[in-house]
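Cont'd.
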Amino acid sequence: MENKKILIYAELKGGSLETSAYELLAKARTLFPAADAAIALAIAGCGIDEALKEAAVSGADLVYGVDSPRLELYHVDYHAEALKKIAETFHPDIFLIPASCTGEELAPTLGLKLRTGVAAHCVDLQVDQNGEFLQMVPAFGGKVIGEIYTPKTKPQIASIKPGMFSVIRQQPRSCKTVLLDDSFLEELKTKIKLRGIEKDEPSGVPVEQADVVVCGGFGIETADNWKQVERLASLLGGAVGSTRPAVDQGWVSGEQQMIGTSGKTVRPKVYIGAGVSGATHHICGMKDSNVIISINTDKDAEIFAVSDYKIVGDGAAVIKALCELLERRQ
Amino acid sequence: MNIAVCVKPVPDPEKYNLLEIDPKTKRLVREGIPTIINPADKNALEAALRLKELHGGRVAVISMAPLFSQDKIKECLAMGADEAYLISDRAFGGADTFSTSYTLAKGLEKTGIQFDLILAGNDSADGATSHVPSQLGEWMELPHITNITEIEIHDGIASVKKKISDGLIEYDMELPAVAGIARNSNQPRMVSAMGIVKAKNKKIEVYTQKDLDVDEGLIGLSGSPTQPGQLLTPDMSRNAKLLQGEPAEIAAELLAIIRKAGIAV
């Protein structure tokens, strides 16, 4: 059997590879342990020299790049076309795409452009006993996991939420870098014009990268109590997380820190949920945390079932006590 | 302005904790879980109705769903949509997003209406792939953008804001175009008594396979490039050791747990 070819879309952040590229690379390397898979990274951006160098020592076997001013900011038509070109050059069996805000749009678009199937938001990737690539996708907010095969078409495209797999640094391999001619992007006609970008104010440690996440839910009850959640997160050097109802209450602005199937996936060393009831959607986004501590006044709260430690009581009071303890020790 | 809104009836996401898999048949048991219009699709419908209020024209709702969902489609008409199309045939069952978007594109074509804008909720609560808006755009060879929080129409252009991880990107799309509207991007209107009365006179046209000019190799489960295997319910349960005492006592215990987990505080 010929060795499998796996292509990974390596997104960029400030000229370097996003963490998701390393997550997917580590996972891809485990899929076919017996037969050495050929793993390629696909990079599409503007001024990508540094990224290409970084990718070359990432443990990939091949790096494909498209460098074009058209790719400076995200544009679905240009980015999809660049990735399509790379896929048509490399002919991967499997194509892994981070399900970021942009990858989430590119994956289905490429599915149609390449006339193949896409498994969305995979929580795991496996190879079954017959050697078939198997994608595990969440449904109904993660209450159910479904197996998905893409038996007839190639590449088998899977999108994976950033944070789903751990980064395991790989030994660099002998790696070939291929920079594709970008003239096809100049010729591409698009009916979409990019007008501008509004960036949010960065708000401390991103929730998906923090070692400690203090997450507040609807049970926090007041904006004053919410300040205690923020205070504890800061004292622990962690990040604040939120549930959908906490966003709806306006205690936290926007969905940047929202955890769950329609938000971020987190796997911190410690997750503390205060006033979080444990809707299926939320649990799907935090269940892989190392230690889960939950505080809720409702003794039957669903979140307790997935917790290592539970406290039946007022979340705000416990958090306040913990803050005071930490402050006394400093 | 002719606007189409794609909607999907889904099991109520507030009740997903009640879902189970039958241990014998391995199929999903969804008894006792009501069907609702997918929440993000209501945001899409609200966006369409607001655009109609500003620019005139009509709003058509289209859905691929079993016939029993007519009640839910009626709710869209009561909200203010002018007409509805329900694509319903066993032959379409089991379709993945590739086949679903193909079938929806064929349904839109069958209406004979020249749509300026096709909206859909960005993702459905059940499958939550967020694939359909982009794939519909690809099938129809129209510009498409998903995760849109704001949309305005002027001079044959849709100006949109798309949510990304660290902010918003603004684009202009030439019409006709397809837009995936983000959940919670607006407050969908309530159904009024007058709306319900008016909906009685609005039509729901049903399309079966024979009504649509579809390639059999692209519809339903057999026409879908992705194929489902088994369904599993992940066991996520943990010990849930109960911590008791006064807040200060619990805080001391928590601090020990947090330190043991490798946090240096």
